[in-house]
Amino acid sequence: MAYSATELATLVCVGCDLPLIEQIRMALPPDADVRAYPNAVAFVDDWKKKNYLVEAVFSQGTVQGMGGVTLFQTLVNEFSFNKPFFLLTSALSDKDRDFLLRSGIADVFLLPLDQEAFALRIGFLLKQWHRLQHPAIQSSYHSYKTPLVKRIFDIVFSGAVLLLLTPLFLLVAILLKLESKGPVFYYALRVGTGYQTFKFYKFRSMYVNADQRLKDLKHLNQYAPTTEIESATVAADNVLCADCAAKGSKCRFPIYADKIEWCEKKYMDEKKSMAGSAFFKLKDDPRITRVGKFIRNTSIDELPQLWNVMIGDMSIVGNRPLPLYEAEKLTTDKYAMRFLAPAGITGLWQVEKRGKGEMSEEERLELDNLYAKNHSFLNDIRLILKTIPALFQSESV
Prior knowledge:
This protein has helices at residues 5-8, 18-26, 40-50, 69-79, 94-103, 115-132, 135-142, 148-164, 166-179, 210-218, 226-237, 242-247, 264-275, 290-297, 305-310, 324-327, 333-336, 348-353, 361-374, 377-390, and strands spanning 10-14, 33-37, 54-60, 85-89, 107-110, 185-191, 197-203, 254-257, 260-263, 315-317, 322-323, 344-346. With 397 residues, it is of the alpha/beta class.
């Protein structure tokens, strides 16, 4: 960790059992001063008497219990507490999470803890808390305003292209319906400018029974060991990805199409797993339709995002909005910078790297940060002109 015990002062654990206190200590510098209290009353009484400097509070309890919002509001009202307050709880709904974060709590973690994610998130918040509380910095993270000339261009450009491509949209819709049952469009949640979440639209390119189809065809791989086939069958039967299953929650990364729902993270994990097999005869993902493969390789499946541009979720040019499971990992200054730029259909890394082979995550983030530092309307026009020839370089995206 880059911070010291003097910077952190005292960190308080309230109502935490011994194993949890040990996990919290592991996420902090070895010389950090950690004090533990059996409950909220004991902590408040002791703090009133000793009046020591508290840098953060970790409280184990329920949302509405004494160790949850009630304790946080007590600290704010009686001590003018303005430091990070972390709630650790074994049960948490989406509404609870939204309520907690709106109330001013720094973060909430579901038990049992994911130690790596826990250490990463509290490390960032503790180190940067003073900066995040500064109004100028807060506004830069959440109040990006699209320049008027860029917004006008986005509306005119996306509107014109949508009108011109209406026949193509109808043709793709007909072909998708003829090949397989299911909706024409689907959407997934994406994180864009200032960490704002929105519905991200695409043409459907997979069969609606995608996971069942993978399970049925997995046995055709002659080179896969029996254990691999069995594990793949189990994974296909499980509707949750490993991350959500471990947390005991419902799917946190769904893809929606009418009443049909997929797990986006599970699909991407399985795709990587299949790609990693050196001897897998089914080269093409069996969940992708023939029409789907074509519209992916030609980027036609991305065209519905022009509607996202029209309604202001995205811009024509910007950093690609990220899936929730990717965005939640980017909690350091180095990576968070990419969210200070507009979210876009095309951008710097798509033009620079398309058709040139695999790109590392580090390379992609560096290009995203570079765009965030230097984006302007003139540079956007240059990237649009470079995007046109890049579209004709075949690449499955």
